[in-house]
């Protein structure tokens, strides 16, 4: 058996465990791992030269496939460059498998190159770390490697999903000789069965009793992938039980007459009397984090008397609003489906008339409609210059139906949330809201586009775009990628939030103007490039921009940050009118 055969066999074990995608960053120490996956006939291997970008590309792939994606990198500081993507995956609960090559540990602190302490390097940002042996002569070492890889892949999938680290010390030689067979052998597969928690009948009875005692029940949806079955169920719960369904664009709740999606507008500075009318007796939350401060602040300042949070596991207590009374270990769709069926049947037996029970829902819906009108009025003022916000509205109106939208952090995701997407568009929305950093937004969208044939549109600001340009370094750039770049020459968000916007150092130390355009970046990456600075130009370019083609496309939208600020401040000045006018 060749010296490195147990390491080469990892490729076959990844395949047997259901992994199909691997992202590799070039390196010598990691060569055995790289050659093993590249030469495996059933693994799709993509190369990203920048490890930070590679981590986010893998994240984007895993977001779309909901299957672990493996990442291979060499030793030393290269491993640290995976950290931002690892942290995002951990808090967004996306499965990744990190295979980091390392020097044997006896060479640590011996003035050897590319050698750092990699054991447990990612700390608490991974579900678990494994350190494989550097010597494989004893059968127990090979057994340990197989067992660890089996366990690591299963753990990445186990709810809550997340990244798992396998540190792989490797001795030379790294490369096979001319006559050496470098091929994975069958590996022992250990299947880990999944199980869904069930609630005892008496527990269900207690929950139903709490529901019956609550005159005002509300369901708040945090960030979740689009799920048609869940949306249909939430619609039925709202229509038939009179329950407000509150969420945001990252919740994948569409704008319609039923769901409540404009909370960032109508909860801003809401008077106590109106807030009390919207306070639920029972709050039910599902999904990950909420996007907007106003919605989170409302639930904290006006806490529900009872708060259920539904999540698949109880390893951590998620109490985002400091009001949690019951943590329910269940898949949200399955739990809500049974809850609705039981309540609906009970009301049928009792002959309940639901007409009077929808008053609470109507309060929320009326506030939402007022907010929607205010947003529409802000964006429809005549003779208005093109702004980031109005540009986002035009883009979202023309985005292809049943496509994928990635929202970069800072202002793009917030503008998109203010606008929303219609139910008929059926667009799936993703965003890196686990840690909410601007690093890696472009790379994540590239990874998403690699995972599908659908059009993937990225809405991104200039600072986030230029920060992550290495996403476009490694080819091929998927032809279904569409990049909408909002370029206002700096960190525009600092001009819109109260603290930095009042400081004389705003422009130099917060906004950091740069004067760049994306023209040269697009040319280097062989991406179609267009630019718009007027609404008429943007409107005329969008149909062709979204049309499928053989190349990725980048549409740069140039706006004036001061006009952006004027529009947003004018909108904020009108918020109080929501409660002083009919």
UniProtKB/TrEMBL annotation:
GO biological process: menaquinone biosynthetic process
Keyword field contains Manganese: yes
EC number: 2.2.1.9
Alphabetical list of InterPro entries matching this protein: MenaQ_synth_MenD, MenD_middle, THDP-binding, Thiamin_PyroP_enz_TPP-bd_dom
Entries under Pfam families matching the protein: TPP_enzyme_M_2 (PF16582), TPP_enzyme_N (PF02776)
Gene3D superfamilies for the chain: 3.40.50.970, TPP-binding domain (3.40.50.1220)
Membrane-spanning ranges: none
Top-level taxon of origin: Bacteria
Pathway the protein takes part in: Quinol/quinone metabolism; 1,4-dihydroxy-2-naphthoate biosynthesis; 1,4-dihydroxy-2-naphthoate from chorismate: step 2/7; Quinol/quinone metabolism; menaquinone biosynthesis
Co-factor(s): Mg(2+); Mn(2+); thiamine diphosphate
Record keywords: Magnesium, Manganese, Menaquinone biosynthesis, Metal-binding, Thiamine pyrophosphate, Transferase
Residue span(s) of domain Thiamine pyrophosphate enzyme N-terminal TPP-binding: 10-120
Segments forming domain Menaquinone biosynthesis protein MenD middle: 208-339
Catalytic reaction annotation: isochorismate + 2-oxoglutarate + H(+) = 5-enolpyruvoyl-6-hydroxy-2-succinyl-cyclohex-3-ene-1-carboxylate + CO2
Molecular function per GO: 2-succinyl-5-enolpyruvyl-6-hydroxy-3-cyclohexene-1-carboxylic-acid synthase activity; magnesium ion binding; manganese ion binding; thiamine pyrophosphate binding
Cofactor note: Binds 1 thiamine pyrophosphate per subunit.
Role this protein plays: Catalyzes the thiamine diphosphate-dependent decarboxylation of 2-oxoglutarate and the subsequent addition of the resulting succinic semialdehyde-thiamine pyrophosphate anion to isochorismate to yield 2-succinyl-5-enolpyruvyl-6-hydroxy-3-cyclohexene-1-carboxylate (SEPHCHC).
Subunit field text: Homodimer.
Similarity comment: Belongs to the TPP enzyme family. MenD subfamily.
Protein name stated in the entry: 2-succinyl-5-enolpyruvyl-6-hydroxy-3-cyclohexene-1-carboxylate synthase
Gene transcribed to yield this protein: menD
């Amino acid at each position: 058996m060749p010296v490195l055969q147990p390491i080469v066999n990892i490729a076959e074990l990844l395949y047997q465990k259901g992994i199909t995608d691997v992202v590799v960053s070039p390196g010598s120490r990691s060569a055995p791992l790289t050659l093993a996956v590249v030469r495996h006939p059933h693994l799709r291997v993509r190369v990203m030269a920048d490890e930070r970008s590679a981590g986010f590309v893998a994240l984007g792939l895993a977001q779309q496939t909901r299957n672990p994606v493996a990442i291979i990198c060499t030793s030393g500081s290269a491993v640290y460059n995976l950290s931002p993507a690892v942290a995002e995956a951990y808090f967004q609960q996306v499965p990744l498998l990190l295979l980091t090559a390392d020097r044997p540990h006896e060479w640590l602190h011996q003035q050897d190159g590319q050698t750092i302490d990699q054991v447990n390097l990612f700390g608490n940002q991974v579900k678990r770390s494994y350190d494989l042996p550097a010597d494989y002569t004893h059968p127990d070492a090979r057994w340990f490697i197989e067992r660890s890889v089996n366990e690591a892949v299963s753990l990445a999938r186990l709810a809550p999903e997340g990244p798992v680290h396998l540190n792989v010390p490797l001795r030379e030689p790294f490369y096979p000789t001319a006559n050496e067979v470098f091929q994975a052998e069958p590996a022992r597969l250990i299947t880990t069965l999944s199980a869904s928690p069930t609630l005892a009948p008496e527990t269900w009875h207690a929950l139903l009793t709490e529901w019956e005692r609550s005159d005002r029940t509300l369901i708040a949806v945090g960030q979740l992938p689009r799920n048609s079955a869940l949306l249909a169920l939430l619609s039925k719960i709202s229509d038939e039980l009179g329950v407000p369904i509150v969420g945001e664009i990252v919740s994948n709740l569409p704008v319609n007459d039923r769901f409540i999606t404009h909370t960032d507008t109508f909860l801003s500075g809401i008077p106590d009397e109106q807030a009390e009318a919207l306070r639920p007796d029972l709050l039910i939350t599902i999904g990950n984090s909420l996007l907007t401060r106003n919605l989170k602040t409302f639930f904290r300042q006006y806490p529900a008397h009872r708060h259920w949070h539904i999540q698949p596991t109880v390893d951590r207590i998620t109490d985002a609003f400091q009001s949690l009374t019951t943590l329910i270990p269940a898949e949200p769709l399955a739990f809500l489906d049974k809850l609705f069926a039981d309540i609906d049947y009970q009301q049928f037996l009792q002959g309940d008339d639901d007409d009077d029970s929808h008053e609470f829902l109507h309060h929320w819906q009326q506030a939402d409609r007022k907010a929607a009108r205010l947003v529409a009025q802000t964006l429809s003022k005549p003779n208005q210059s093109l702004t980031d916000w109005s540009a986002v509205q035009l883009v979202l109106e023309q985005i292809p139906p049943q496509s994928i939208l990635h929202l970069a952090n800072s202002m793009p995701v917030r503008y998109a949330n203010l606008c929303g997407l219609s139910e008929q568009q059926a667009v799936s929305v993703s965003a890196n809201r686990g840690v909410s950093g601007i690093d890696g937004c472009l790379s994540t969208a590239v990874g998403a586009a690699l995972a599908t044939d659908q059009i993937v549109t990225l809405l991104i600001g200039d600072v986030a775009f230029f920060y992550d340009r290495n996403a476009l370094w490694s080819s091929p750039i998927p032809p279904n990628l569409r990049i909408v770049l909002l370029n206002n020459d700096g960190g525009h968000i600092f001009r819109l939030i109260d603290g930095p916007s009042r400081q004389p150092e705003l422009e130099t130390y917060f906004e950091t103007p740069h004067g760049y355009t994306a023209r040269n970046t697009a040319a280097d990456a062989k991406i179609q490039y267009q630019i718009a600075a007027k609404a008429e130009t943007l409107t005329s370019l969008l149909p062709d921009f979204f049309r499928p083609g053989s190349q990725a496309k980048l549409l740069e939208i140039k706006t004036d940050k001061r006009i952006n600020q004027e529009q947003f401040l004018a909108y904020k000045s009108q918020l109080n009118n929501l409660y002083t006018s009919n």
